[in-house]
Amino acid sequence: MRQLQYFLAVIESKHFGHAAERCFVTQSTLSSGIQELEAMLGGALFERNKRKVLISPLGYMLEPKARQLIEQANEIVETAKGEMGTLVGQLRLGVIPTIGPFLLPKVLPGIRKHFAKLKLLLIEERSASLLERLSSGQIDCAIMALPYNLKGLEHELISEENFCIAFPPDHPLASSHQAMSSDQLPADEIMLLEEGHCLRDHALAACHWQSSRQRAAIQGTSLYTMIEMVAGGQGITFIPDMAAESMLVEQSNIHLRPLSEPGPHRQIALVWRPTYARKKDLQALLNCIREEESNHRS
Q1: Which of 14, 45, 99, 157 could make a disulfide contact with 59, Cβ separation 3.0–4.6 Å?
Q2: Are 257 and 176 in contact (CB under 8 A)?
Q3: What's the pLDDT tens digit per position in 125-159?
Q4: Are 276 and 141 within 8 A, CB to CB?
Q5: Whole-prediction pTM value?
Q6: How far is CA 2 from CA 7, 8, 15, 91, 194, in A?
Q7: pLDDT by residue (tens digit) across 185-218?
Q8: What gap in Å lies between CA 290 and CA 143, rounded to an integer?
Q9: In angstroms, rounded to a whole number, what is the distance separating the alpha carbons of residues 38 and 15?
Q10: What is the sign, positive or negative, of the torsion defined by CA atoms of 98, 99, 103, 104?
Q11: CA-based angle 265:269:270, to the nearest 5?
Q12: What is the phi/psi pair of residue 139, to 5°?
């Protein structure tokens, strides 16, 4: 099973070094495992050269069977864990960067309190990467922002929220706390996250702007960076309510005004595979997250 995991990691990473990092082993250990698997099967799984890694015909044939075997093995382990009680053992939870720093500090203490035997492994990546990890069985579930194409995965909502507009404190539009429309915003001052962040797409959708429309003066790599740039007078940006209520924003030198476009502007959801065996555990986790978040809001 370990060799099959190495094999699939190389396919997904298209790089032996990156695959080894994903599997938390050295590159030599991963390469040896692949070679042992090839020797057992009597053929090469990859065509190797200095520039890239190509999958062989035998590798193409093996890939779907390898995924099926690993998923079945995971189901056996997950079923056994379920027999030991609710949320016992390891749970691999993915979360996107525009949710993790703002939601997890609120809910993790309560999760640890109610489920002391749970070992939560957190993976923070963008939505597309988390969907790949979910589909391949590398993680058990993920907290993501909707709407987003989940490609057949199941989900249930945690909460809904709207956006605020963040201004430098000396900006002419920072003199009021009233809601304002996106049409009132100076287009040449708007900063958005770079492409690949779903928060960018949700902000564009909330304002009814086309994604191809060049509205962003600056593109940032993280919400933290964008907040600091606003505080430094570099422009204005959109911040979800979740982040607006955080210590990061409270301690930053920025001014917030609600976006008046009808919401919700994005939905926060827990996502999982339809075949996942521990759905009772996910429901317990979902209920705990909802309760803890509600306690912080009240």
Answers
A1: 45
A2: yes
A3: 999 999 989 988 889 999 999 999 999 999 999 99
A4: yes
A5: 0.74
A6: 9, 10, 17, 19, 36
A7: 998 899 998 888 899 999 999 988 865 444 556 7
A8: 12
A9: 17
A10: negative
A11: 170
A12: -130, 165
Evaluate whether 85 touches 56 at the Cβ level (below 8 Å): no
Q: How far is CA 145 from each of CA 63, 152, 179, rounded to the nearest angstrom?
A: 30, 16, 23
Give the position of tokens 């199941």.
154
